[in-house]
Design brief:
- The chain is an all-alpha fold and 109 residues long.
- The chain is built from three helices and no strands.
- The chain has helices at 2-37, 49-77, 83-108.
- The radius of gyration is 19 Å and the shape is flat.
- The mean pLDDT is 80.
Amino acid sequence: MDKDIFRLLIIIFIVLIFLLIFGIRYLKSKETMAMIERGMMPLEDKKNTGNRLILYACLLFGFGFGLLTSYIVMNHLMSESPGFAVMIIIPLFMGIALLVANRLQSKKE
């Protein structure tokens, strides 16, 4: 029963991430189209591609490391209700990854 809940939570989490990315891209393109219709020049965000790459790389690393850690905690350390560990560990490591990305970007500038 617990493994079914865990699988459901992981699927919901992945779907929410994809919906968030899709929503941000959709709203960004809608804003750009509205600016073009009004005769305004949309801002070019191409200068920060290196910073975004570092941010995405750190986020993916944090997500993967969080999944690995939660897997280890679930299978080797906990026998009861491990679902809360996943919901705590993954965002924790993603937050740490964001802090690392911020430090790397500030050193780069």
